[in-house]
Amino acid sequence: MNISVSVIERNRNSFRFGALISIVLFLYIGINYGWRQGSLFLVGISAGAVLYHAAFGFTSAWREVVNTGRGAGLRAQMIMLACTVLVFTPLIAQGELFGMGLRGSVAPLNIAVIAGAFMFGVGMQLGGGCASGTLYTVGGGNSRMLITLAAFIAGSLLGTWQWQLWQGMPGIEPIALTRNFGLFGGVLISFFLFAAVWYATIIYERSRHSELVNEARSDFSVLRGPWPLLAGAFALVLVQVATLLLAGRPWGVTSAFALWGAKISGLLGLDVSAWPYWSRSGPSASLDQSIFSDITSVMNIGIILGALGAASLARKFSPSAKLPLGQIIAAILGGLLLGYGARIAFGCNIGAYFSGIGSTSLHGWLWFIAAFVGSTLGARIRPKFGLG
User: DSSP string covering 320-344, please?
Assistant: First the structure.
């Protein structure tokens, strides 16, 4: 493969820059906010590298099912979720480890989850990525995703403004399978659901194609990628477990976007502290503190830097400012839907889908169904914005 000297130098410089910023931030966070916070920053960096090298996009995997009928990506997600349940279940049941309290991601099943997840599903296809996907593609040098991220933050802020309107929507109280059916019963039901999705993708793929195709990446490289999907799936399980053990709760992404939006609004003179979202547990200390004290913010910054390093090592960091108007519009609309939807649906593809289902919460499955329907619609209308 012929790579120009300018490309090599650009990637070397971007790697050096990312490495320098990462080292400085790690030391700053560790010294000022403790070793756990510093460790979570490193977990975020690892997640960014994994997401980039494995191209583990929830968005593209779901779009593949809709557009081509291929389900390898979705099947990899089921394996990832199954492994998470196996590890999470005994840890969360224990309640604490080494003095750190452990809890799962459990939320109600209501109209807000359905509506928000549906919006998120449409948004992920228009915006070009999910929550984690937006972060790692921004770090990887995708210029359009910077627009999606900015709109994501704006949509999240809008969601906090209207958060109270969605509270008390018709629904039922939170249901965690392990709480209602015991540890064994909860795991068994979860695995039945994973198997159902797994075989549904196989049946659907075979109905559209003569043979089943599982991913084959013969040019695998640890440092430069691409990684097999299953390698990415197992690595993300480790990210989840590390987050649970260090933070006391599962991985999340989008709450930080709401916080960033609120911080930016404060700089512009808009005081959001009286909004019910921020004052639901009394005055929100997070608005007055540094974003580096926020676990989710620290991990998100780590994801961007981890992806930057991975893209640079792969010599694929190549930002471009040439964006068609249709793609810009789609990025803005998609980002707004992503942010607003995640805020009212108790999370995104990570906080609600990955962490929720990993915690055996049924709201995670409800989120998955609604988001997949929205994603199907989003995939159908992508061409109207010039998106392939």
Answer: -----HHHHHHHHHHHHHHHHHHHH
Q: Is residue 120 part of a domain?
A: yes
Question: For 228, which DSSP code?
Answer: P
Give a yes or no: residue 40 inside a domain: yes
Q: Is residue 315 part of a domain?
A: yes
* Inside any domain, residue 128: yes
Residue 189, phi then psi, degrees to nearest 5: -65, -40
Which pLDDT does position 2 carry in this prediction? 54
Between the two ends of the chain, the Cα-to-Cα distance in Å is 26
Q: Identify the residue with better confidence: 269 or 168.
A: 269
What are 238-255's pLDDT values in tens digits?
999 999 999 999 999 999
Tell whether the model's pLDDT for residue 223 goes beyond 60. yes
Q: CA 270, CA 102: separation in Å to the nearest integer?
A: 36
283 has pLDDT over 50 = no
Domain with 271, as residue range(s), is: 5-213+224-385
Q: Which residue in this structure is represented by tokens 């649906």?
A: 345
Spell 338-351 as b/e; 16+ CB within 10 A means b: bbbbbbbbbbbbbb
Spell 87-119 as b/e; 16+ CB within 10 A means b: ebbeebeeeeeeeeebebbbbbbbebbbbbbbb
> Quick one: pLDDT band at residue 336, thresholds 50, 70, 90?
very high
The domain tally of the chain equals: 1
Q: Which residue has the tokens 């090592």?
A: 313
Q: Judge whether 253 and 50 are in contact, CB under 8 Å.
A: no
